[in-house]
Design goal:
30% of the residues lie in helices and 28% in strands. The protein has 8 helices and 18 strands. The strands form 3 sheets. Strands 6-7-5-12-13-14-11-16 form an 8-stranded mixed sheet. A 6-stranded mixed sheet has the order 9-2-1-10-18-17, covered by helices on one side. The chain has a 3-stranded antiparallel sheet with strand order 3-8-4. Helix 1 runs parallel beside helix 6 and helix 1 packs across helix 8. Bound molecules: flavin-adenine dinucleotide.
Amino acid sequence: MKVLVMGAGVAGLAAAWELRRRGAHVTVVDRQDRVGGTASWFAGGMLAPWCERESADEKVTEIGAAATDWWADILPDRVERNGTLVVAPARDGSELDRFARRTAGHRTVDETELGELEPVLSGRFRRGLFFEAEAHLDPRAAMRSLQMLLARSGCIFRLGEDVAETDSFDAVVDCTGMASPVDGLRGVRGEMLLLRTSGIRLSRPIRLLHPRIPVYVVPRGEGLFMVGATMIESAADSSASARSVMELLNAAYALHPAFGDAEIVEIGVGVRPAFADNFPRVSRHGDTISLNGLYRHGFLLAPALAADAAAMAMGIREAAHG
Ligand SMILES: Cc1cc2nc3c(=O)[nH]c(=O)nc-3n(C[C@H](O)[C@H](O)[C@H](O)COP(=O)(O)OP(=O)(O)OC[C@H]3O[C@@H](n4cnc5c(N)ncnc54)[C@H](O)[C@@H]3O)c2cc1C
């Protein structure tokens, strides 16, 4: 069974992995000359099924709960299982209560425990919510490692290619994100920053609640932090706006003033592909299977959706021979 995977973002790489696991001969093409996708490249890499319940359907938590094990089985050194900490400035305590009511899988930590979990935040917040079972990874490093393992297992990568000839393949899995022809996709623009400072050490993603601009900071190691992200109903991938950058920087500064001295390493923009219900879909059109609409849950939901897409692709061959 020969399968062409179009797109080497998190969806395409996860699909390639699930196809290889089922014994398919897999070729991955991407129009960019590297793996890592477009939206995927700018992701926070949070594997946070319980926190996400604040704004997402229950299905996201149910399906996403298995994602950390999927990533850790394949890339044990890339997954940090240190949980997520959610905090709010004292004046926004009601935001923390609201977040607690809308989510599960957390416990309240007081100022002392908060300081034990993240010494750099000692004395800065009176209480927080600790989602102990959550995890995070560095998306770019994880996707590069996945590519290496896939290549070692015989998967062929054709990078820097836009259009691929598909006739010699039994099935095509379209993971082209916003470029896909699939109906009903919209873009949700996310602006993010990479900051570097030696003045702050964090072990886990911190979400800072705010009624207007909730943000998160994800540690990437060696003093690097991802600060994200805006949620703007737009498919425009133009440069980040000054307002968004100011808001992200303000929020990082509110979390800890040492971010004020940080070096701005990168200002990035990714467009999240989403359907109307913000839930991803695997669909089939002839011999092409589409995996898309991962919205803000690419790293969280790609493993499960990729398994569905791979099973569907393998079914094409079985149906042809059955
Ligand atoms: C700022 C930000 C933060 C996020 N944080 C998180 C997070 O913490 N946790 C989480 O789970 N999710 C997060 N997400 C969501 C996640 O990044 C997306 O859901 C996911 O990246 C979508 O992946 P994808 O593979 O479908 O698309 P993409 O990453 O966009 O990949 C599509 C690929 O298809 C290629 N392509 C397009 N057309 C063609 C063609 N004709 N031929 C060949 N290749 C083609 C493109 O070059 C690209 O590489 C975040 C997103 C953003 C923007």
